Amino acid sequence: ACMAITFATAPTAGDILHTFVERTRPFGLWGPVRDRLSPGLRADIRTETRRDIVAICVAVPWQLVLFLTPMAMVTKRWDQFAILLAILVALSVALYATWYRHLRTEPFSLTPHRTPSQVPEPVT
Prior knowledge:
- The chain is an all-alpha fold.
- It has helices at residues 2-8, 14-24, 31-34, 39-74, 78-98.
- Helix 4 (39-74) packs antiparallel against helix 5 (78-98).
């Protein structure tokens, strides 16, 4: 049903897609929309995508160990708990180094950017 609705409805406007790709920086088949971005932003997106792929290789084992560590504690398997805790700390440091410290810090707004002429006058 989702695919039928996708092809039965009108395409999304180009400026909306441009804003979406600029803000969310998705990886995948966004080439035609991504080509409209500035070369600097495209390079930033490529770098961020490569970093995310590396981070996934760290984040998946981190999530598994995060689940197993308290399980070892609850079952009082202290030897396994100590090993898992050490692995969790190591993976947390790796996840910080490969992903968290590279997150963007600029403010994010859900409202579209508007020029002063597009902002409506306040109603009094």
